[in-house]
Amino acid sequence: MTRCVWCGQPIRQTVTLSGLWRFGQQRTETVCERCLTRFQRVTADHCPRCGRQQTDRRCCYDCQRWGANSLTNHAVYQYDAAFKAYMQQYKFQGDYALREVLQQELVRALHQEDYDLLVPIPIDAATWQTRGFNQVTGWLTDQPYFQALTVRASHKDQPQSAKTRAERLMTQQPFRLVENAPALLANQRVLLLDDVYTTGRTLRHAAAEIILGGAKAVTSLTLAR
User: Fold this and answer.
1) The whole model's pTM is what?
2) Average pLDDT over residues 26-35
3) Fewer Cβ close by (within 10 Å): the C or N end of the chain?
4) Residues whose CB falls within 8 Å of the CB of residue 156, separated by 6 or more in sequence, listed in order
5) Residue 23 to residue 208: CA distance in whole angstroms
6) Same domain, yes or no, for 14 and 85?
7) CA dihedral over 80, 81, 87, 92, signed as positive or negative
């Protein structure tokens, strides 16, 4: 019997003719319906620049303060208690199996974006050693992407999650382009992919490097805001 990768409860598999026709065999579900619906989606009333949930569709105060340094970000879910609990177990405790919880939702979100090249936000060497995986690329299944950015070897800092808003905004450029990036970025519409949009500082650092690499335009997608 298959059990949900998040809550551990048994999953009752439903065999359908459409599923057999599309996949040749019935796909085994690994996440239960209850866990799939734990998160709150970003609804129509959100900031058009960053995806923050609010009571209208005007540009939020945070995005107004960014001024000319604007970046359009689309978010799928609100960063609430449920999403925080998920990220704690998946990202910070390193439960790699939980990548499956949001893989299909990310597929749907990517299909709604208009871009030429997908660029995930990288993690540093120390995180690779301790966690063993990039939480962002863990959500990807068969989607092609280009790891155009890497974290500078000289960048030694506390995790963004441990910083205050003011400390996040003061963070120096942590990224650089990989050697062959300009050849692939030239005149491309790039979509940055990250887990959570908090202040937008990390994504703007990444976007600045991508533009320097010759990209025509940069937007971003995050699983939560």
Assistant:
1) 0.88
2) 83
3) N
4) none
5) 41
6) no
7) positive
